[in-house]
Design brief:
- With 580 residues, this protein is an all-alpha fold.
- The protein is built from 26 helices and no strands.
- Helix 21 packs antiparallel against helix 23 (486-510).
- Mean pLDDT is 80; it is low at 325-331.
């Protein structure tokens, strides 16, 4: 085997890995934010989790990506450890589909339709269609489909190059002598493990083995231990990803390793015992790409059938291996999720929704104790404000990192929406703390507003609660109709607060209220006004970013021109509801 053949072999491997990565990332991008939602919905039952693992791995063509995703989700506290076992088993079965696809490279026939199944026949067609779609299509989904086609074509070309580069080895005596060493099963397992661990892709190492098998020098007896080792080697990615995570996330990697190691020990023991008792005639026969794909599938299906009933025992094994000890609190967003951007984005959305409801809870709690101060509630609201500050800090940094990954247009718009809203939620919680400060001042100084003043503050409080409900619900559900109701109410609140101020001045002049009352009332009304403004900002972000624009001033000026019949109708309705 000359230097040119080596260059072709490693060049083919490079193309294979690039094509696999291109296809995997495009498939994951096309899936959008659905993967995380499906994971959470379908992991309650071990059989659902199994088929989910198969489905996701077939979809994104990477069991390593699925396992890394699971490590990140467990580390973030989104999934519990027991829910991952079925998904891990399913991903091991799902990854065998790649081997079956690559086995088509060994097809030999003069029949036209069978020849069209060969990669060198259909890959150029897929590449052509893919490139045209990427260049011509306008929508990101169609461009992603084109990218998937191109990635698959590159993958298959890489496989073809690897096959062609090793074909001279068929007649090489040196190669034949090297292969005799692989009659030792332990050496075969170690070789498969080492190669897969280095390139971190079982699909690529299986592809290399399939390419070598086309020389005719690899027997079933040699290939089977190597396949076992390749399955163990693929755990290297999960092992690396578990560095620096909490103990439960480390246990995900332990379960993955245990699955493959136990499966290898049992499978090899049964296989060689059976061979010793019955002498399998195929052991010394040359294996082909189809045979490799078949044994790869048999191993993972049999191991799953063996271990699926022992899910709880695998979890206990992982817990026994990684002992529970007190550990520091970890961040709720895991950096590993950035490898699957749509999943990371869905988690950012979920956490932003939590942040929004926490801000609403803090504001509602502050308004509830405005004239009935409670020290415990005061501290609770201040604690919530501290938590919301942490949310904003972590989310802001994480979203900036996420925006630099490969995202669809809709995912990019979602990131913009989150970045535009998290600051508003944080400011609402700040105003909640300010309101609590007003409540404490009213209590400490025994300030008593007039009955009319209390009635007016009550009306304003009801209006603020309604605008917060509408704004946050419109954000939760991305409801444009609901979001359109915020600005009319915000305009009514502005007028309402202005009227309360005027009425207070009138009462001040008539001696019904004091200047001391005026200071605290002014603070309350100013905070209410700012909360109303932040609700308006949230609604505008929902509406404008759904159109892929963010022309805030233009949108608000258009509404405030009072030329919109719907706006006028809502404005009049709210004005009659919140009149003083």
């Amino acid at each position: 085997m000359d230097i040119f053949s080596f260059i072709t072999l490693f060049g083919g491997l490079a193309l294979f890995l690039f094509g696999m990565n291109q296809m995997s990332s495009s498939l994951e991008k096309l899936a959008g934010g659905k993967l995380e939602a499906v994971l959470n919905r379908m992991t309650s039952n071990r059989f659902k989790a199994l088929f989910l693992g198969i489905g996701i791995t077939v979809a994104i063509q990477s069991s390593s990506a699925v396992t890394v995703m699971l490590v990140g989700l467990v580390n973030s506290g989104i999934m519990d450890l027991s829910s991952t076992v079925g998904v891990i088993m399913g991903s091991n079965i799902g990854t065998t589909v790649t081997a079956w696809i690559m086995s088509m490279i060994g097809i030999k026939s003069d029949n036209f339709f069978i020849k069209m199944l060969k990669p060198e026949s259909f890959s150029p067609v897929l590449a052509l269609i893919g490139v045209i779609m990427m260049m011509v299509c306008k929508t990101s989904k169609k461009k992603d489909i084109g990218s998937i086609m191109c990635g698959f074509a590159i993958l298959m070309y890489g496989m073809t190059f690897m096959s062609e580069s090793v074909s001279p080895l068929a007649d090489s005596p040196k190669f034949a002598s090297i292969l005799t060493a692989f009659h030792n099963p332990l050496l075969g397992i170690f070789t498969g493990l080492a190669v897969t661990a280095v390139i971190q892709s079982s699909a690529a190492s299986i592809g290399m083995l399939q390419a070598l098998s086309m020389t005719g020098g690899i027997t079933y007896g040699m290939a089977i231990p190597i396949i076992m080792g390749q399955n163990i080697g693929t755990c290297a990615t999960a092992l690396i990803s578990s560095i620096g995570v909490n103990r439960n996330a480390k246990r995900v990697a332990v379960i993955h390793i245990a699955f493959n190691c136990i499966g290898t020990v049992v499978f090899m023991a049964v296989f060689y015992l059976g061979h010793w008792l019955f002498t399998f005639p195929f052991v010394n026969e040359a294996i082909n790409p189809v045979g490799i794909a078949m044994f790869h599938s048999i191993f993972n299906i049999c191991t799953t059938a063996l271990l699926l009933p022992f899910t709880k025992q695998l979890v206990k094994l992982a817990e026994g291996t990684i002992k529970t000890e007190p550990e520091r609190e970890v961040a709720f967003l895991d950096e590993r999720l950035l490898k699957t951007p749509s999943v990371a984005l869905q988690e950012c959305t979920n956490i932003t929704v939590e942040m929004a409801h926490l801000a609403k809870k803090s504001m509602f709690g502050a308004m509830d104790i405005l004239f009935n101060y409670d020290e415990k509630q005061d501290q609770l609201i201040r604690d919530m404000e501290g938590d919301i500050d942490i949310y904003e800090d972590h989310l802001g940094s994480y979203l900036v990192k996420l925006s630099g990954t490969n995202l669809s247009d809709s995912d990019s718009r979602q990131i913009s929406k989150l970045l535009h809203t998290i600051g508003n939620f944080e400011r609402i919680s700040d105003h909640a703390v300010n309101i609590v400060g007003c409540a404490k001042e009213i209590s400490d100084k025994d300030i008593r507003l007039s009955d009319e003043g209390l009635r007016e503050i009550g009306i304003a409080t009801d209006a603020i609660k309604e605008i917060m409900d509408i704004a946050i619900n419109s954000f939760d559900d991305n409801d444009l109709i609901l979001a359109a109701k915020v600005e009319p109410l915000e305009q009514v609140i502005d007028g309402l607060l202005e009227n309360i101020k005027i009425n207070h001045i009138n009462r001040l002049q008539s001696g019904e209220c004091t200047i001391q009352h005026g200071f605290v009332l002014s603070d309350i009304l100013n905070n209410y006004e700012r909360v109303s403004d932040h609700c308006s900002n949230i609604a505008v972000a929902v509406i404008e970013l759904s159109k892929a624009t963010f022309e805030t001033h233009e949108y608000l000026n258009r509404l405030k021109s009072m030329n919109d019949p719907e706006f006028i109708s809502l404005f009049e309705s709210y004005r009659s509801k919140y009149t003083i």
